[in-house]
Structure formats: structure tokens, C-alpha cells
Design goal:
With 178 residues, the chain is an alpha+beta fold. The protein has a single domain, classed as START domain (Alpha-D-Glucose-1,6-Bisphosphate, Chain A, domain 4, 2-Layer Sandwich). Helices cover 33% and strands 39% of the residues.
Length: 178
């Protein structure tokens, strides 16, 4: 009986802790990749090829022209809907699944490469999703890994471009308390 009571108390404490965690997380990262904007756009919007260069994905299922599903190596499937796509500069996606929200990318080209500005506005709809995200998911690390993987893939066709020239400009994290 003591074991059951101890388990119930532990579960209650974890649940109450989860309720104190923010349901919202915003992140904006700006970064430069030394590659032409068209090449960056081509690689990042070719959903079916992403498991070949992203080390966090098992597979991507293309549903139709505006919907696809990512099956990550860790966690549940994430459904994406393309809300806005303006080649080669703007992309906005809606996410649904264990995490919900929007992902926005703005690309701009200058004489030294392509600036990528990625923005996430995420909501963790359940207490369990907040707890799991807090314990096992670092959005900033995920975003930097994605851009590192993107840069490596882009550079396959541009071997003179070095990943070391892929530089961070700014990362801004805002965790809402709502």
C-alpha cells in the first residue's frame, strides 16, 4: 500500500510541476550559410530527401502539395501544413502533433551567401508534452543542428564552401509564461 501511495504522490508532484511549465516557446535564429539562395531553398524544401541529410529523421511522408508528415527518430509524428511559400525567400509551416505552432523561414541573399532567419512559435498542448519537452527537447540545439545539417548538404555541390564559414548571427529565445 505504501508503494502505491508513494507512486501516486510522485505522479501528483510531477503533474503539478508540469502545470507550472510554460505551454509556449518562441525561438528566432539568424544564421548565414555560404551558398546561393536557390540552392538553400531547393534543399530545405525537398521534404522527401531530408531524411538523407538530417540525422534526426527516420522518414517523411508526402501527403499532398501542402501537407507532409515527419517521423523523427525520437518522439511522435509531426504533421506540417504549408501556409505560405514564396520561392526562394519565404516559407511558413503549421505544425501539429505532440507540439503545435508555426515555423517561419525568411531567406535573403547577399554577396557572401544566404541569411536564414528561422522562427518558431510553439505550444505544448498537454502537461505531459510540456514535461517531455522540458526533459528531452532543446529547441535551440535542434535548430542549430538542423542548420548545420542543411549547410553540410548544401556544400556537397559547393565543395569550396566551408561549414566553418557558416556563422551564427543571433539567437533569441523567449519562453512565455502563459
Amino acid at each position: 500500500m505504501k508503494i502505491i501511495l508513494s507512486i501516486l504522490i510522485f505522479v501528483a508532484i510531477v503533474y503539478l510541476w508540469g502545470r507550472t511549465l510554460s505551454a509556449h516557446q518562441d525561438l528566432r535564429v539568424e544564421r548565414k550559410i555560404n551558398a546561393p539562395i536557390e540552392r538553400v531553398w531547393e534543399v530545405m524544401t525537398n521534404w522527401s530527401e531530408q531524411p538523407e541529410w538530417r540525422n534526426d529523421l527516420n522518414r517523411v511522408e508526402i501527403v499532398d502539395n501542402t501537407h507532409f508528415i515527419e517521423y523523427p527518430k525520437k518522439g511522435g509524428a509531426i504533421h506540417f501544413t504549408i501556409l505560405n511559400r514564396v520561392r526562394p525567400t519565404n516559407l511558413e509551416l503549421r505544425l501539429s502533433g505532440p507540439v503545435q505552432g508555426t515555423y517561419t523561414v525568411v531567406l535573403s541573399e547577399n554577396s557572401t551567401g544566404t541569411m536564414i532567419e528561422e522562427s518558431y512559435a510553439l505550444t505544448y498542448p498537454s502537461v505531459m508534452a510540456r514535461i517531455l519537452a522540458k526533459l528531452f527537447f532543446n529547441l535551440e540545439a535542434f535548430t542549430h543542428q538542423y542548420i548545420d545539417n542543411l549547410a553540410k548538404e548544401v556544400e556537397k555541390e559547393h565543395p569550396s564552401l566551408a561549414l566553418s564559414n557558416c556563422t551564427d548571427i543571433k539567437s533569441v529565445i523567449k519562453i512565455s509564461t502563459a
